[in-house]
């Protein structure tokens, strides 16, 4: 009994701390070497986390997108041939003018629909506003003012205006308007669901502008700053009618099939030649450069 | 300007990974814009900067090739590299062709042969370390070498090195002798 009590009360004296000294480490492994099977390590970590009770919420790879403009021009306006070539005094010119004044029935319907949603829309006042938007948008493009440009131009038109111009200097000047702008065409397409109305209005503009494009090193690529050119354009403006905060913005341009060919850039460009069979030779004299078809396209 | 590129700050931090502290200054030289020139100024020659990073080759061996093509026209440089037996020559040729393509497509260079190699140099990339085993338990740290290669193409003909004739050198020597003076003389 006594020895038990003594044994239980026995104090453990601290043992002398002995450090087993082995030979000094002579080798060195660079840290990157020796980590094999990192995937196995991460799987272990996942299992440990699950066992500990840490719950990871499922990650959804989703993102909400707001669509504020249509993808293109619906039912594009086909400008009559010889527009702005004939003066109003001749017989053909008068005929053209009368045709232009009574726009198609679909356009009238569309204008009526637009007036339902947007009270301030009139065929007389709108073209002036459209021209202002056009001038402001191009001025913002010369300054590369992204925020202002996004407010004046739809998301579909923005990349077409800006692509390739980032490291170029643009100098654009609106000299004067030769004819008062006119509403020529209107359509009201609806996207995705039935009530989602967008209004697209085409405005015809005849004006004088100067454009000069300089490349990254300040060398003139195209156009000239002093020489103004007469330009006949068909602008398409769009607005999301159902949205009360929607604004009329530039959506695109229509280039007619009979438009005059643009002047070439100040640069020699290589065009891919015809495909030759082995043994054939390229005959320079008989070869004509293929010209693209004159089709109306809208930008 | 919205398109002005600010310099990335290298904060004093020990946790930088290998990809974050890479220097991208050479690529940024391609984004430098010049103001439009007046019609009476001489036409500014176009410049294209191109590089390739972490090439599996030694920087010293690359140096020989970079020195060889410095100052050549691009056609000449590509021809020389095509028939060179070194491994770096094939990679360098790819880099030059890429740079030429970039110049014509993006930087408004008119004729693709109208370029010359203005600057060409190589430097050390990030090395990987491995163990090289020697006898008697000894070891060495083996470096898996990588290098970067940089090239700058400029439009136009390469500048001609001035040829100094023997007569010119002799004339300079005689002039030097004649212009000697005795200092602290009465």
TrEMBL record, chain A:
Q: Which keywords does UniProt give here?
A: Mitochondrion, Ribonucleoprotein, Ribosomal protein, Transit peptide
Any one Pfam family match given in the protein's UniProt record, by short name: Tim44
This entry carries the following GO cellular component terms, namely: mitochondrion; ribonucleoprotein complex; ribosome
> Which positions are tagged coiled coil?
none
> According to its UniProt record, where is this protein located?
Mitochondrion
Q: What is its main location?
A: mitochondrion
UniProt entry tagged with the keyword Membrane: no
Give residue ranges for domain Tim44-like.
107-255
Concerning PANTHER family, the annotation shows: 39S RIBOSOMAL PROTEIN L45, MITOCHONDRIAL (PTHR28554), LARGE RIBOSOMAL SUBUNIT PROTEIN ML45 (PTHR28554:SF1)
The record describes the protein's role as: Component of the mitochondrial large ribosomal subunit (mt-LSU). Within the mitochondrial ribosomes, required to direct the nascent polypeptide toward the tunnel exit and position the exit at a distance from the membrane surface.
Q: Which family does it belong to?
A: Belongs to the mitochondrion-specific ribosomal protein mL45 family.
Protein name in the entry: Large ribosomal subunit protein mL45
Q: What taxonomic lineage is listed for the species of origin? A: Eukaryota, Metazoa, Chordata, Craniata, Vertebrata
Automatic annotation (TrEMBL), chain B:
Listed A to Z, the keywords are: Mitochondrion, Ribonucleoprotein, Ribosomal protein, Transit peptide
Source taxon at top rank: Eukaryota
Any one GO CC term of the record: mitochondrial large ribosomal subunit
| UniProt cross-references to Pfam families, sorted A to Z | Ribosomal_L22
Q: Which InterPro entries match?
A: Ribosomal_uL22, Ribosomal_uL22_bac/org-type, Ribosomal_uL22_sf
Cell compartment(s), UniProt: Mitochondrion
Q: Does the keyword Glycosyltransferase apply?
A: no
Q: Does the keyword Cytoplasm apply?
A: no
Main location, first listed in the record = mitochondrion
Example GO biological process: translation
Q: Name one GO molecular function term.
A: structural constituent of ribosome
What family is reported?
A: Belongs to the universal ribosomal protein uL22 family.
Q: Which PANTHER family match?
A: CHLOROPLAST 50S RIBOSOMAL PROTEIN L22-RELATED, LARGE RIBOSOMAL SUBUNIT PROTEIN UL22M
Tell me the protein's name.
Large ribosomal subunit protein uL22m
Organism for this UniProt entry: Oncorhynchus tshawytscha
